[in-house]
Design goal:
The structure is a homodimer.
Chain A: H1 2-7, E1 8-9, E2 12-13, H2 14-26, E3 32-43, E4 46-51, E5 54-56, E6 59-61, E7 68-72, H3 87-109, E8 114-126, E9 143-152, H4 156-169, H5 171-178, E10 182-190
Antiparallel strand pairs in A: 1-2, 3-4, 4-7, 5-6, 8-9
Chain lengths: 192, 192
């Protein structure tokens, strides 16, 4: 009984976690993943992304029975009708979610039982950049502040190490802080 | 009647758009925005972000009656139970949504009536990086491919210019391609 209880920590099956690590070490090509998103414009600032299949662990993954559909928008002051968070807010969400999951996984691997993880992220921008009014301002956030509150059954110093390690391993933290090359391909048609 | 019809193009009120541009040119401090996201861990790879208020156009914006709540997760192969798209997929969504809204706004400003905008984004990663198995691989995507299909009432070359201009002005495209400094603050508590 004790073994079964300890195997799942922070909602993460650590047996599966260490099994996955061993499998990828033994067969490195299982580590290749490709994630995908398809977006369709609906009108104005409203567009919708569909997310379902991906490639990973050596195969096309079809485990998701249904697609996720997520709507983006803009508030009135940015010419939208609030059909969803705006894209910059979604980037903050992606960063918060990735740091959180990373630290939950790191804690599970290190035997730390977490009781609470909360974060608040703020991004500052001057829209004179994106609006093309003044090129002294970049289009995106000048900086992002991420404040985490973490509670768990370990000394504060160990909890800090878990967050530190999570930031060193988070996919989105890496992308947001270091950037990623983006290849943009465009096909155009004149409507008849 | 004709003037009223032409004022709204692609679902964007161009009168309001040019009015906003003029207002920010006259009073540059209106261009300062701050967006925010608060995230709470639920269990395992499941966490939820709440997005509502922001600062912009010289004041705290309270125009959103309700908060947006968005759930993140991981598929089974990455130790989750599919409670939502994963954080890297949300980053693709943020990029697709921002490029789409940017090009819709640019088209509206330039008098181009769009009939369709669709995009597919793919991001490649080797999870040996994020899993800490092999430091030759970065944690995030090595590259992102974004393929846009755009239809509108202008010559193909003009439609391409609209997409080109949109990528030069998109907040999330800037952040994803160039990176953003992130300040990470951590408070920890040992659970009793």
């Amino acid at each position: 009984m004790t073994q079964v209880t300890e195997r799942v920590r922070n909602g993460v099956d650590t047996g599966q976690m260490f099994g996955t690590l061993d499998a990828i070490k033994a067969q490195p090509e299982l580590g290749r993943f490709q994630f995908r998103a398809t977006n369709r414009w609906i009108g104005g600032a409203h567009n919708r992304t569909t997310i379902k299949d991906f490639h990973g662990a050596g195969q096309e993954d079809t485990s998701r029975a249904e697609a996720f559909e997520i709507d983006a928008g803009e508030p009135a002051v940015l010419l939208g009708i609030d059909t969803g968070p705006n894209p910059a807010e979604y980037l903050l969400h992606a960063l918060a979610a990735c740091l959180t999951t990373s630290l939950v996984y790191v804690a599970a691997a290190r035997g730390v039982e977490l009781t609470e993880v909360e974060s608040t992220l703020e991004g500052d921008m001057d829209v004179r950049g994106a609006l093309g009014i003044d090129d002294h301002y970049r289009n995106g956030f000048e900086r992002i502040r991420a404040s985490f509150r973490v509670e768990g059954d370990a000394p504060e110093e160990k909890l800090r190490e878990v967050v530190e390690r999570a930031s060193q391993r988070s996919a989105v933290y890496d992308m947001v802080t270091n950037g990623v090359p983006v290849e943009l391909e465009v096909e155009t048609w004149r409507s008849s």
